[in-house]
Amino acid sequence: MKYGATAVALLLLASVLPAQDALQPSTPLRFLLVLPNNVPIEAAQIQYFPSGPQGGGASGSFLKPEPRLHAYGLNPPGTEVKVMAYLPGCQFITLNLTRDMLTTQALACRPLRSVNLSGRESPTDVLAGRTTFVEVRYLARWGHYFFGIMDGMVPMFKVATAAPSADGTFKVSLPDFADDAAMEYWKNSRCWWLLLRDVGTLNILALLKAPESLSDGMGKLEVRPSYPGVVTFTAVPN
Which domains does the chain have, with CATH numbers? Predict the structure, then answer.
């Protein structure tokens, strides 16, 4: 009888331990993202979104670039994390990191040529008496599909700035994402967004609406391999 009671106790313990283990939090994700030495680190931009049993309720975030820092720790909740990275002069980088992968991930730069854009703001009233600059953002509308979410802010990355002349003309150099092999699958879900900001306050003074022939249908500029001539943007006060 004594041995029978012991056997029953062991069976009960064996049934309880797996249940307790299931309740224990799994080992958190830990990655080290290493940036190449030949890119402007201060302009690098990295966004990420965790998923899985413990990360599904989390929201995405970004890593803040630090001067002269080439490695960033990433410790999100969940069982996997997806990363989007913009490194100046490089093709766009996407990663889907899981616990069974190497903890040190090198973000390799695959060089990408640039596209020159010459633009003009019209009308120029918004420039009167102000010191302004044009900011160009890359809108990765495909980010929702990549991250596996239904809504939220569209991932965006600042890629260029320029000071307009008194007549509203400006020039910027943009990464040629139209020729980015990594972005081929998402070519219909991306665009440029041009803003006019005040130098002193950084407030957005106007949105620069692209002409219909180059617009994505909502005023944003299509990602194209070239922009001949001078593109006239309509300045819509913010």
Answer: 31-106 (no CATH), 114-237 (2.60.40)
